[in-house]
């Protein structure tokens, strides 16, 4: 079985939804989790994770961790020798995501409140960076936190960008158009 298929079968979306909408977990659409944020559409999450190509043992930054669902999926994909650092700006969602991950036994993840800079420079560089909300432009702060040879997947306006860092200041970028995300706050 494909690693993404295994992750999606092991990490249940319903475990990361508020009580009143858990019954919508199998709907292939974004689901409101409060505070103007959503639990992203499963098809979109799968595509983003496929483009991100997380590997066992990777150190990953998950920006805009929300309910913790993508954080938990990443945790499963990097395995016990990997590590996921999750950042979230909305305190209630930070706690919601942390509780959800803890409840299902995720141990290779740490949750942090988002700071003034995008990301979490303290633990950089990262092998992979996933951003789960739309920025108005590619966040330069995050490019600096990506290691050479690393990859970032980030929504910008109505596209998803897959960015490979091929040198200290050299990037290769692919644009995947026609997506809709809540704004990165």
What's the arrangement of secondary structure elements?
Layout: H1 3-10, E1 31-34, E2 37-39, H2 42-52, E3 59-63, H3 69-78, E4 83-88, H4 91-103, E5 109-113, E6 126-131, H5 140-145, E7 146-156, E8 159-167, E9 170-177
Parallel strand pairs: 3-4, 3-6, 4-5, 6-7
Antiparallel strand pairs: 1-2, 7-8, 8-9
Helix pairs in contact: 1-3
Model description:
This protein has helices spanning 3-10, 42-52, 69-78, 91-103, 140-145, and strands at 31-34, 37-39, 59-63, 83-88, 109-113, 126-131, 146-156, 159-167, 170-177. It is an alpha/beta fold and 185 residues long. The protein has a single domain (3-7, 30-177), classed as Rossmann fold, CATH 3.40.50.150. A 7-stranded mixed sheet has the order 5-4-3-6-7-8-9. A two-stranded antiparallel ribbon has the order 1-2. Helix 1 packs across helix 3.
Concise overview:
With 185 residues, the protein is an alpha/beta fold. Helices cover 26% and strands 31% of the residues.
**Level-2 CATH architecture:** 3-Layer(aba) Sandwich
> What's the SSE pattern?
HEEHEHEHEEHEEE
> In CATH, what is the homologous superfamily?
Vaccinia Virus protein VP39
Shape: globular
Number of helices: 5
Percent of residues in helices: 25-40%
Task: Report the β-strand fraction as a percent range.
Answer: 25-35%
Looking at the structure, the CATH topology is Rossmann fold
Strand order of the largest sheet: 5-4-3-6-7-8-9
Low-confidence stretches: none
Please state the oligomeric state of the protein chains shown: single chain
